[in-house]
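PROTEIN FOLDING TASK:
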Amino acid sequence: MKQSRQAQLLLASLCAGATFTTSANNQTDQAFYGFTGLFNIPNAEVLDRGDVAVGYNNQLEFRGKYVDGYNFNFAAGLFEGLEVAGKIASSSMNHNLFSSQYRGKETRDLSFNLKYQVPYIPKDWFTLAIGGQDLGGAANNYEAYYAVASKELGDFRFTLGAGSTENLTGRLDGAFGGVEWMPFTWLTVSAEHDAQALNAGVKVHIPSEWTGDWVDLTLSGKLYSDVDDTHTEDSSYFGINAKFKLLKEEHKVKVSAAPDIQQIATKHAPALRKQTYTKAELNEYQTSINALEKDVIALKYQLLKDGFEGVEVGYNDSEVAVIFENHVFNRNELDALGLVLGRIQAQLPAHIAFTVTMKKLDISQVQIKGLVADYQNFITQGITPALTITQTPVIDRGGLKWVHHGANKTPYWLPRVALSPALVTTVATELGVLDYSLALQADVSLPLWQGASIDVSARQHLTSSDDYKDGQPFNFYEHKNGVKDILFTQTLKLPFNITNQTQAGLYQDFYDMYGVRNQSLWHSPAGAHQLTAEVGYFEYKDYSSELKYYVGGYRYHFADHDVTLSAKAGKFLYGDTGFKLEGKFWFGDAAVDIFYQNTDVQMVGIGFNIPLTPRKDYAVTQFGQLSGNKNWRHQVRTRIGETSNNLSFNTAILPQTSQSIERTYLNQDRLSVGYIQNHLERLKEAYSTFK
């Protein structure tokens, strides 16, 4: 066995050279196994909420030995203290492990990790975390469970923990510990004992200023290990990691007390008018009305210039009402509300009360009431405004004079085209680390009348990996050129907070089908609770067969944390019955979701939701509108609870189209009262950015 004296001397020198100060500047980086840590061991740190990390290293565990291979890691901080991570470990990138040449001689594995930092422990004491690696998989090659504590002193972080595993290398099987020293902001020197061996190395941090402050890069090198030569090919292994911040400062939740609705209603009530006036008072009143009319006309023209459609502005001497449709701020419709409210406070007198109603295809989405003076104070001084917010607006046109200057720019009969990639993948199978089929998808929507549209989706195949090509195992799932869907969609806003949507037409999902689907959605007045019911019936175009499904669901929104928890149960599209649980964590306009499904098989997975369009899209022209996908999603999942890990493509599936109640009318479930109240800072930032 290699002598451990060098590592012991290194640990001693690190401790002896410490300069203990009251502040620590240690980095939080990925270990070689996906979780945050040193090289082989975790520490008690976790990724910040909204941070996503990806990495690669060449240290592979295989049959109790460290060998040169491929490790691809990813991790995300879902909320404060919780980190989920995953790892793809492979001996090769594309070798067919079914072939006699490689069967039993190589490995390829997808695993998930979880780490939770225990709350309520003062940071100046220490941090404590518990975690698990390779949880619940069919082939638990790296399964381990651990508890770990870390303490920062000046430029040092000390870690001590204990774990349990049946891993053949013995890593994390017993007591482990390590020390990290960061003498410079760009350098970390680390030494660790992973319960079986001493390891030491360095991490070099690329200054974020070099990358435009959008990514932190770290180069890692495990330069020494005293593992026995029979258990390692080399004592040195290397890696690279990149960490991204999805949550921008202006998107962070700002919690404030909900305003007193009754008090606001009284505050907005129009004052009793006098029965008689002097001539001077009448002249003064007429002058103020004429000035207000000029202001509201200017406001309407500005909103049209901003690209809004269906703009209506009504007014009297004490109140202004604005009704508009937003088709330009598609990533997050809060930006549209922020710009409109900002325009109102900049254009109108302070004593005016306002009512703003946002619609989509003449279906009301949300309504906000307040006082111009309050909102002016919010913009200029940051004082939280008193706003009345509802998702069940009542539009009262009585008592208001409506501005007829300028066109309303109605949204109908103007095609809307959204472009995005269509991607299907298989990850860490016996055929390769990554196989894929990539196409360009165009979703065309032609609004017809209130809540109605013709929706067409088409795909153009771009490229596929070898295993998706003709004659290969995954060819059935390769994207094909041509029209995918031709649908008529009708959405209705019903009483009691119920929205109903029906779609009928041609669906394409491996085979052409004629079908109809219907979804009903109810939400509580504040939007925290939501119930859904969805049914569908499809007949194959070229075969004598049919598909039926029926699914019910419940969703709860934790507004303070931008988290939604949902459950769906029933019979899914391809006949499997059971349920699916999902947690979705929003970071601004991006989201990460984790899910567990139990139908014919049990599976867990992680999905990434990314906007592929600017915050503000191009406004509609006489020819229509072109944009990107406002919420493109891709997922990775794996089978659990079984001794084998066979692929499963079509379980817990529901039809996915470009139009849905949540996606089209509810801002992807981000128009609730709580969501808006907790993101007032974004309203302010949107006006500052786009005014």
Remarks:
- DSSP finds eight helices and 32 strands in the chain.
- Residues 1-24, 255-277 have pLDDT under 50 and may be disordered.
- The helical segments are 5-16, 261-268, 279-305, 334-347, 372-381, 661-665, 673-677, 680-690.
